[in-house]
Amino acid sequence: MTSRHPASPLKIDLPDGQGRRVLVTGATGYIGGRLVPELLAAGFTVRVSARNLDDLRTRPWFDQVEHATADLQEPDEVRAAMQDVHTVYYLVHSMGGQGNDFIDRERQIAQTVASAAAQAGVQQIVYLGGLHPDRPLEELSDHMRSREQVAQVLLEGEVPAVAYRAGVVIGSGSVSFEMIRHLAERLPFMVGPDWLKNRIEPIAVRDVLYYLAHAGALAEPVNRTLEIGCGQDQTFASMLTDYAEVAGLSRRTVIPLPLPAQRLSGFWIGMVTPIPSGIALPLAASLAEDAVTHGHEVAEVIPDPPGGLTPYREACRRAIEKQTSGEVSTTWDHDVLASADPADPLPSDPDWAGHTVFTDIREHDGGASPEAVWRVIEGIGGQNGWYSPGWMWRMRGLMDQAVGGYGLARGRRDPEHLQVNDHVDWWRVEDIQPGRLLTLRAEMKAGGRAWLQLGVEGLPGGGSRYHQRAVFFPSGLLGRAYWRAIQPFHALIFPTMARNIMRAAEGGGRNKTPQGTDFRPREEFGSAGEVPHVGVEPA
């Protein structure tokens, strides 16, 4: 374990927590994975537990924490993981279960954790549950009832427990937020279940992490339930329309209709969004109930975050900031470091999380030197062309001009060299790393925003590898339809383009195709598909 701690965007200052050893269970999950770097930055000694530590090895903080292999259903393993621990963060909960067996299993795990904590001398347990109406347990959904029973087990145990209740957590990767995102982005007109009228009090993920971190640095142990939210509630339907406005989408119309069963609501979510039905079903059941705080008693124990709680619209803005700023990764590597903001997407988020990004990725190896390939890359466009069927580019240019775009008429400022902000036909140079990577941003008319990245790297045995990546951020249904419509053209243009750029480099210069070659496309396809994480793209 190293002592290097990451910077915290939340700037949490917790003198009472300095050096305290805390155990984070559920570090593979959405909240746990984002809490660990905040705890490290605040000065805690952090231990993480998992049934399989391999699930955590790719996290950027893995070498900065202590590790414990523990199945929470095995008392001896849990007790060993808690040795010399001051505070245990209990952040484990299944979204996929239902019925009495699921509820009983969750309760038994909570009992195991509470008992092991007492035997190991733990001083404080911190749990994150869900907001729900003030009604008998048997009237709640299975999902919400199990979470509340876990809280009760912990509160009745020997070790004091802070049992937080939170509603919809807003941040990229949160299942509730991803549902909001995908519904709003895909459906300009929504006819949905009756629970769209329910009152919800959301909370930004940064505020959840703030409260969790502070609970680990309390001067004295606390045993009570604390409800947390942003301080303002609204209908779920208005959350959808507010998100659409923040994301720059057209006005969304939402019409709630009574559907015959919660299960049907879950299937509706599963059909419209990429969220798996096993998660959508319990999520729909919990959304069928209001989720609003009953006061602000948490302020008696923990002060509000500096600057106050984050309003819903601001939380949405943070969650989609990379999307709206048009940030595109400028590395070919698979490894992406943790984001500076917990609301941003992480590589460890599920495949269905994050806004939709379409990519078309090609690679081509050849005998040309990286310098020769770079000369071709830097000279692309204008009179030098695009090393693929010219009639397709001309047709797309005419289509762009027909709707008020630039088309191919602008050409280039210089036939050989580029600099940031140069125009190249309908593209604009957004970034250039000489000898390595060129990033072009499209200024053509399309249902979203597009980039084309061309790069090169040397190979150990000589020669080079050419990289080519088209990236498209669709806007609503129009953008998705646009990408699907042009995919057949991509299948012709992009493989040919990659192949002929390398051939031109091997021939000694721009647009000098070796004798015996042509520009006809062949069946040579790379990977093309929908990538759900901004900045996490296959190479």
TrEMBL record:
Domain of life: Bacteria
Domain NAD(P)-binding: residue ranges: 26-137
Residue segments, region Disordered: 506-539
Pfam families with a match to the protein in the record: DUF2867, NAD_binding_10
Coiled coil: none
GO terms for MF: protein-containing complex binding
PANTHER family: NADH DEHYDROGENASE [UBIQUINONE] 1 ALPHA SUBCOMPLEX SUBUNIT 9, MITOCHONDRIAL, NADH-UBIQUINONE OXIDOREDUCTASE 39 KDA SUBUNIT-RELATED
Full protein name: Uncharacterized conserved protein YbjT, contains NAD(P)-binding and DUF2867 domains
